[in-house]
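Two quick folds needed for the group meeting slides. Do the first one here.
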Amino acid sequence: MKKAKLLFLFALLLTTVGCDKDDISPNEEIVFEKNILTTITDVSGTIQYDAEWDHWYICVVHANTFDSVINYYPLSISKELCVPDKKVVFSGEVHEIKNTKIGPAGHEYYAIELTSIKTL
């Protein structure tokens, strides 16, 4: 009987600690689609850091809203710009992220190939 209980507990443990293949693990590389969704020009945003993906991003909050946010993850960005809450104006080619994460309602996540970026 003890053996059956131990086997049951072991099986239960394995089913609860498993990781779904679609889960995003910390520090995962951002995988993006090659095709360009759109091109944006002179958009204002704020530099932020995403600890889950170990990646800097540019946060854009739409005017007159509090829950409509677009997070752009640059494919490359200068280390000098990687300062939390730094205000920037940027342009670039927007790509869909294949391994996108699920965030709060009203948040969108994209990769961006920056063509220009400057601080405010």
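Then this one, please, same format:
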Amino acid sequence: MPIPADGPVAGARAGGWIPAHGAVTRAADSKAWWAKRRLVLNAALVAAGMASLTVDAALLELSRCTIPKSDLTPMTLVYQALEYLGAMAVANAAWFAAGQLERRLDAPRVPAYRRWTFGLALASSALLPFLSPLLLLARCR
């Protein structure tokens, strides 16, 4: 009896099941695909965060916006940086979850899922940091 090469279980071993070669390859491919793009995501997060803080500083310096002095302390930047590191941790956790969820999809849906998820993650990583300057503008008097 031949061992199936494309099913979720390729054969039996004493005391357990052996995953099919296709299942192992698919999991390794998935992990490699997501790991390869994590650097792009993190670079976008860092660049957007730095740009956002720059826009914040430019708005405060160049606009005629009057904000109470209590909001303009050096610790404000430290808190914003710590919040941003927390946001990066959440983004990376979501990135990890996306890779895990991919393994539950049918093989024909994987390329579309990857494109959609990567695009959504990249767009949100680039746009969400700019909520801070928008909130700053909204608070201007």
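Slide caption for protein two: Confidence is low (pLDDT under 50) at residues 3-21.
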